Amino acid sequence: MELGSILQFLENKTILLTGVTGFLAKIFVEKILRVQPNVKKLYLLLRAADATSASYRFHSEVIGKDLFRVAKETLGANFDAIISKKIIVVCGDVFYGDLGIKDSSLREEMMNELDIVLNFAATTNFYERYDIAFGTNTIGPKNVICFAKTCLKVKLFVQISTAYVCGESSGLIPEKPYRLGETLNGVSGLDIDYEKKLIDTKLDELRAQGVTETEIKHAMKDMGTERAKRYGWPNTYVFTKAMGEMLIGNIKGNLALVIIRPSMITSTFKDPFPGWIEGARTIDALTVSYGKGKLTFFVVDLESIVDVIPGDMVVNAIIAAMVAHANQPCDEVIYHVGSSLQNPMRYSNFRDYLIQYFTNKPWMDKKGKPIKVNKPTIFNSISNFNRFIKIRYWPLLKVIYGD
């Protein structure tokens, strides 16, 4: 797909994004503003107490990030004018109908102007409270697509999901939708309405017992894990994302739907510059821990593949999918965005990259001194790891705690 056709498509478009303070959504916003400042409008939904708070969050948590440095340099004095003219910060929440937008005139304006709606909103904690994950990852997409269907001009709805809705399946994973009630292990009885009732009942019971908020939090986390594993998913995050896919596929009607399923998202590869990241997720947490000298071993099969994909590549895939499917009503298309098939990275590569990088560019400690890293010890099985722990640490633990 030619860059010129993509830029032409984006020109004069009005787009709604949810979850805009998230890592991936920020990269998307930056990309649009930098490569196509002639986009008509970007409506950005943020959770906040009021419009003033939403605007503050946008400037501090989005546009104030170093990610936008290149856009500011490229656009120069026009950058602030473009932000002021093109960006409309919307106070709302995907948890609620009409996205929780209380300003009726703004809501009507959006319904009349929007061309494309993208749902980035999600909680990505693998073991989040079931009520919170269900509200954001399952009910959230339903509320966003219901809002999109009320808009007069919307040509496309894009749902950002995860490749790991496949659970722990191996081999070639087909790009096919999940239907209502479908499970990974074949166990029947998955009913999303019933899951909502279970959540409400559990919360009512816990509150009636007068337990603390901490106890409620732990109980709801355990509930999410239990419900996920009951139907074959390994954790609450991927289970609730899968149910979100089921709902939007069921209610989309004639609206074109694209579901993007990225694998583990890492820092930017080159756009707007290499290496931008925010927070430490999944494999990034391992990278940081190793660089700081805190992680000296891995339990891993070095020949196995770690499926990672840079954030800017995911955004490029999203934009290309938008162009390809915006004028294709009734479509429901799924794209896996990963690296394991065509450009796989093995854990042996990951280990070597860590050693090379932090040897050449060591992490500095609080005193400004470089932290020296060594080649990590590799355990290819849990039994070998347990044996190592027993030999190295068990005698010390016996001394400290006794027999």
What ranges have pLDDT less than 50 throughout 5 or more consecutive residues?
Answer: none
* Number of DSSP-assigned strands: 13
What is the alpha-carbon Rg in Å? Answer: 23 Å
Give the overall pLDDT as a whole number.
93
Give the helix/strand class.
Answer: alpha/beta
Judging from the principal axes of the Cα atoms, what is the shape? Answer: globular
N-to-C order of helices and strands: HEHEHHHEHEHEHHHEEHEEEHEEHEH
Q: Please summarize the sheet with the most strands.
A: 7 strands, parallel
Calculate the terminal CA-CA distance, rounded to whole Å: 67 Å
Contiguous helical run count: 14
Q: Which strand order spans the largest sheet, edge to edge or round the barrel?
A: 3-2-1-4-5-6-11
- Fraction in beta strands: 5-15%
Provide the helix percentage.
Answer: 40-55%
Which key terms come to mind for this protein?
403 residues; alpha/beta; seven-stranded parallel beta sheet; 14 helices
